[in-house]
Amino acid sequence: MERAMPQAVPLGQMEVFQALQRLHMIIFSQNVSPCGKFLAAGNNYGQIAIFSLSAALSSEAKEESKKPMVTFQAHDGPVYSMVSTDRHLLSAGDGEVKAWLWAEILKKGCKELWRRQPPYRTSLEVPEINALLLVPKENSLILAGGDCQLHTMDLETGTFTRALWGHTDYIHCLALRERSPEVLSGGEDGAVRLWDLRTAKEVQTIEVYKHEECSRPHNGRWIGCLATDSDWMILSAGQGRCVNQWQLSGELKAQVPGSSPGLLSLSLNQQPAAPECKVGSARGSGDPGRPGCVDRSVTTLLPLGPDSRRQQLQGGCLYQSGLPSFLPVLLTSSNTPTSISGV
Length: 343
Prior knowledge:
Layout: H1 11-23, E1 27-32, E2 38-43, E3 47-52, H2 53-56, E4 70-73, E5 81-84, E6 88-92, E7 97-101, H3 102-106, E8 114-116, E9 129-135, E10 140-145, E11 149-154, E12 160-165, E13 171-177, E14 182-187, E15 191-196, E16 201-207, E17 223-228, E18 233-238, E19 242-247, E20 252-257, E21 263-270, E22 277-284, E23 297-303, E24 311-314, E25 317-318, E26 329-330
Antiparallel strand pairs: 1-2, 2-3, 3-4, 5-6, 6-7, 7-8, 9-10, 10-11, 11-12, 13-14, 14-15, 15-16, 17-18, 18-19, 19-20, 21-22, 22-23, 23-24, 25-26
């Protein structure tokens, strides 16, 4: 549905309109460019804004350097998910995924390269696409969302090659176990499902809400985010106050205390030289019962090792010195982040 915009608005009213837009803005998705220098953020108005990370995160950064270099209208509805290949930025909204060339975006030439829509059950069905996942080994893209399925698209031909059924409610998140290759999915039904891409079959189901330690009936069953390593560990979070650590067998191994109900994002960092992992988690302070309904972003570094300390950062930007694979991440927020502003 397109944004309502007055045909002709006096200057003073336009400023009020823009201020109201910023007040009600939700950042649903973010992605760092292949070179690591730029950040794309997608909001509930269908816009994608591009920020310069070096300018915004500089110790001498001014307010102007924290604003977008370029903002363009990508979708009619919210931009729920984004991922990047070596050359392309892929964005997903209601029912379709679009491709944009990073080189053209940075030249402020934001022309859509292509768009694709999965084969839905009816022509009237336009479910949101909540998650995108690249599978480099098979040069494919997995899409999942409101139709409760995982769709695989061949990035070379643009054709959809398979659909995976199993979830009974819409899907929020995906994670890749690249060595296997296997994909994890989590959704509103409270289940984490493990799929073998070689056989296109579900090989394991972890029904998180059935574990007494993880059950939060007043907050719902939903799984908002997943992370995994390539060996045995699965991390899930959503309606509860903890990040749950699972074995592939479905055994609950540990619970890492978080902040409040409603964890929306997980990022796992493993340091080869240290016997520990660090997990970045993000949550909102709004309605804990639904992802995206948040007022403010809080990021917590949750150590899985015995001698690590938990660190909490406010304002929507996650950065930890000494961890080179932790890139700055813009977190879900309905207000303009304090670290990078002006989407």
